[in-house]
Amino acid sequence: MLFVSLAWIWGGAFVAIEMGLGSVPPLWFAGLRYLLAGAVISAVAAATGRFRPNGRDEWLAVGVIATFVVAGYHGLLYLGTTLIPGSISSVIVSLSPVLTTVAAGLLLAEESPDLVDGLGLLFGVGGVVVIANPGGASVPLAGVGLVFVGVALFATGSVGLRALDSDLPPAALQGWAMLVGSTVLVVGAIARGEAFPTGVASGESALPFVYLVLGAGVIGYLAYFELLSRVGPVRVNLVAYLEPVTAAMGAWAVLGRAPTATTGAGFLLVFCGFALATADDPLARLRPDTSDDVIRSDLSEGGNVEVHYAD
Length: 311
Hints:
InterPro entries: AA-Vitamin_Transporters, EamA_dom, EmrE-like. This protein is mostly helical. Helices cover about 70% and strands about 0% of the residues. A two-stranded antiparallel ribbon has the order 1-2. The two termini are about 20 Å apart.
């Protein structure tokens, strides 16, 4: 029940993002969301264990996740979702386990991608191409490209974290990364000339914003940490592959938009890519130690080793 609930909570986040972006600028929306969620998670971390990072590797770990995952991935995800539906964004995000496997082979000296990994990447990218439908005009390619690059940053940050020897507790790492990353997002919003959303907590954006901060951002991560302690990082990572399904169902129920056959076909190709890329259990090769418990496979929100930020 906890696993399925988490899939619904994080899958619904894509619908909430799409709804909120109708009235709130994207980088302000992402920045304010993670600023508040980070404050709550940080308070929980400080009350339950060590919170302050110690040493170069722990501060680097915070910087990597804040820059690549919170700011880079989410900034591009929110920008991309201004152009494409959230349910389609969720399918592209589910490509992250495949990209993480390949990125690990390219960036980690002890790893090397093999033919099966390459086939997995081809299937995954093929799924994104099917969704983008280059021959048609139904899905803006710019939106697909933004989300895809964001997922690539997510995968890179996940692998970078794996290379660091950090003992910072997961909740503390999440809290610090959210606070630092949200600051980067706010700076980006100002640089883009986005108007400050004075009505983010009122009007039509209020419910999506509260859901993203408290539901997906706080309750979702606390449920994730509980699942992580019960079943470990390998099994909990599979939640990434329920998220596109729950996102599509949520969009159908809330927005009245039924999933299309093209989106379904693209998701199946991405899932086949995941099956190929993880055929020899790359999680065994990239197995996170206790310091990497926050890493998931994907994550995007998918990824074989990644911090889970779905939303």
